[in-house]
């Protein structure tokens, strides 16, 4: 399963290579924004936009509401995974 993680573009680190810094829950990481850029639009104009990213690339732009829903779902999936792991450990004990 491939999961796109929402992040907000906070900085353009290299305009020639379309590299940006995104913030994901307080963690900043570099990504390539080549897939979401539009010819004639300055890279700096993407600062503040939300994107879905996967393996170091911004795959699509999303709005803030969709980003919040996706982050909440990912959080819930993480909690469900932790519960399943706890159940497996208790069964084997």
Main pleated sheet: 5 strands, antiparallel
The radius of gyration computed from the alpha-carbon positions, rounded to a whole number of angstroms, is: 17 Å
Count of separate structural domains: 1
DSSP strand (E) fraction? 35-45%
What structural class should be given to the helix and strand makeup?
A: alpha+beta
Description:
The protein is an alpha+beta fold and 93 residues long. The protein has a single domain (5-92), classed as SH3 type barrels (Roll). It is built from one helix and five strands. It has a five-stranded antiparallel beta sheet with strand order 3-2-1-4-5.
Descriptive terms for the model:
alpha+beta; SH3 type barrels; 1 helix; 5 strands; elongated; 93 residues
List the SSEs and their pairings.
Blueprint: E1 5-14, E2 19-24, E3 27-32, E4 50-54, E5 57-62, H1 64-92
Summarize the model shown:
The mean pLDDT is 90. Helix content is 31%, strand content 35%.
């Amino acid at each position: 399963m491939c999961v796109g993680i929402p992040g907000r573009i906070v900085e353009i680190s290299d305009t020639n290579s379309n590299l940006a810094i995104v913030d994901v829950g307080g963690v900043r990481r570099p990504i390539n924004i080549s897939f979401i850029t539009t010819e004639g639009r300055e890279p700096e104009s993407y600062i503040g936009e939300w994107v879905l990213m996967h393996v170091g690339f911004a795959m699509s732009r999303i709005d803030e509401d969709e980003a919040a829903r996706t982050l909440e779902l990912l959080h819930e999936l993480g909690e469900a995974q932790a519960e399943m792991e706890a159940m497996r450990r208790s069964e084997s004990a």
